[in-house]
């Protein structure tokens, strides 16, 4: 996911002009000399902003839901995501054109204009939970992957006696816990840096590695599928539908980037078309990736698909590359969280202790979650449904209600209801999976 996608307000991370070219999602410049993005660059930026670690949990999700049901969910969520992203664009255009508002640069700013402090607070809360959720998933992925690579058994949930704490013969930790705690002091240091713009190019590296990993996995999938035929299920029933929807919503999370991207588009009249083509392409890629992974490994498909790969230099290099990019992406994704927390609890002042408490909280949550895909479903259901569906439809309804017909109001109201149902039932389903795991 991109560098600035989830900034909740215009007080987010600023990028010096000399560094702007290296940042995939350009910040807005208010000096009148900004360089606007072509359609091809906008397409690339949308791809970078949306495609993230969630894609690695799709094959396991397709195993849980059935391959046909999983693919259908991907396209349904993509269509709904596109519609809600455009609702934000239309809402801002209406406010700026007809009501004289200006400098609505972010989702949070839009919430403030439409619903006052309540709207701003709602966006802030969802941004904090979603960004922190992404970072929890990063820690889970890194710890499980390192356990898979380093432990000869490849079992990240092996006996606590497998690895002992350094310097202690009395206390022991499971491999996953050891790796998460091992990252903790380094993340405290990285999250104590006031300005993280020099880490911004790593968001490009992250997506290059992500695409490379997907390529390696898909080649392995095709090879295995041609060698052996697994017993596959197309549909596994309604009981797992909301679980799959949660993961799909997580995989398409990127609602916070749409307003900054539309601001930077050179041809704003074609932005909707570019966004639609981008999401359709990502949907096809997600669908093929999930189906091929499940077809190759069947019931043996793991929550992180790269852990299904055989041992070898190339596969382990890809896995380590993913771990490295997520490790350094962690402070970038936490920056909007720190911005909100410091704005609300430290008078907008830099507060290292508050940052450390937040990082500790994220670390503790990661220790408690056993399964990568289960956690993706929880965040997608509990947070991303509200952020990506409910709030855009609510803001659009409030701004356009005086000129909307019954059908248009019903559509916005329907999206709000669907989003709330997805969030409620999906959260319950995901929590049940995590508790019983």
TrEMBL record:
Record keyword Transmembrane present: yes
TM region positions: 43-62, 68-90, 125-150, 162-184, 196-219, 239-262, 274-297, 317-338, 350-369, 375-397, 409-431
GO cellular component: vacuolar membrane
Subcellular locations according to the entry: Membrane
Topology class, membrane: Multi-pass membrane protein
Principal location class: membrane
Pfam families found in the cross-reference section: Aa_trans
Single Gene Ontology MF annotation: L-amino acid transmembrane transporter activity
Annotated InterPro entries: AA_transpt_TM (IPR013057)
Swiss-Prot/TrEMBL keywords: Amino-acid transport, Membrane, Transmembrane, Transmembrane helix, Transport
Taxonomy, superkingdom: Eukaryota
Amino acid transporter transmembrane domain span: 38-430
The keyword Nucleotidyltransferase appears for this protein: no
Protein name from the UniProt record: Amino acid transporter transmembrane domain-containing protein
Phylogenetic classification of the source organism: Eukaryota, Viridiplantae, Streptophyta, Embryophyta, Tracheophyta
